[in-house]
Amino acid sequence: MCEKEPTKRYMDAECQTLFASLFPAGFAGKDVLKEIAPEGWLDSTLQFVFHPTLEQVHWECVQLHRNLRNWPWSGKDRLDEPEPTLDSIRADYQDSPVDTAREVRELVAKCLWDVFSNENDVVDRDGGLVDIGSWRGAAGFLADQLNRETGERQYHYIDFYMGSLWVSERADLTPVYEMIFRRLKDRLLDWRYRFPKLSLIEFPCERTDGRRSYELEKMRADLEQAHGEAMDDLKVEPVPAIVLAYSNIYGIFPHGWPPWEFNERDD
Questions:
Q1: Which domain, by its residues, includes 117?
Q2: Which of 138, 127, 246 is nearest to 193 (CA)?
Q3: Which of 28, 89, 91, 118 is most buried, judging by how many CB atoms fall within 10 Å of its CB?
Q4: How many CB atoms lie within 10 A of CB 138?
């Protein structure tokens, strides 16, 4: 069951027109807020995305420390670095005032990146691909959307690159994904899930270098092993919020889920 190439790719102007219809009052319109936080932003757990607790910040710092320490290409000196303590995090911890409009529009943009990028596809009923760009390109498209919406040049692609990756553990993002999928479904658009896989970009070299070739092959093997381990982890973890949200709105799991069965069929 191989995927067909898209019969059409939406151009930038078409994508902008689509997003204007998806969010007529903007990413932080009252309609959006009512859908994702009907109890009000201050009483919604989604606000923890921007106002994490001290304990959450400490947990994130510890996880980052461990991931960097276990990264195959980390320096040996990193093994001796102590884990951050709660007291050390407390010394620098400082919450910021709540800014509902900014926080809502930025959260929606991050979740839109998860839906439209990260190897996933949004398609129309004829198979046309709503192509807002690659990982970086999609982030730039969303930044431009918000810059037009706010009338200021305050966002850059880096603000939305990797979407909700760094904040997804702070709150259940299912309501935001449901809001997005509800709007896509209303416009007869569908979504295809694809489990992201890191690839090695090799730059051409005129000279043959045995050591370089060996290191490249080792890196490919390491990436393939990491991908396999991540797939195994996915089999025993809860269904991702984005996939569950799609199921809640469309009534079925998206094309591409579960990825281990989907990959086996493609092979």
A1: 12-51+98-200+223-266
A2: 246
A3: 28
A4: 25
Q: Is 88 a member of any domain?
A: no
**Domain count across the chain:** 1
Q: Which residue has the tokens 């005032």?
A: 97
Residue 211: C-alpha distances to residues 18, 108, 246 (Å): 50, 46, 46
Residue 28 lies in a domain: yes
| 69: in domain | no
Q: What is the pLDDT along the chain (267 residues), one digit of tens a residue?
A: 445 666 799 999 999 999 999 999 999 999 999 999 999 999 999 999 999 999 999 988 898 888 777 766 556 666 678 899 999 999 989 999 999 999 999 999 999 999 999 999 999 999 999 999 999 999 999 999 999 999 999 999 999 999 999 999 999 999 999 999 999 999 999 999 998 765 544 445 555 566 656 665 666 666 566 657 777 887 989 999 999 999 999 999 999 999 988 754 443
Tokens encoding 39: 């109890």
For residue 250, which of 109, 49, 115, 111 has the smallest C-alpha distance? 115
Q: What is the pTM of this model?
A: 0.83
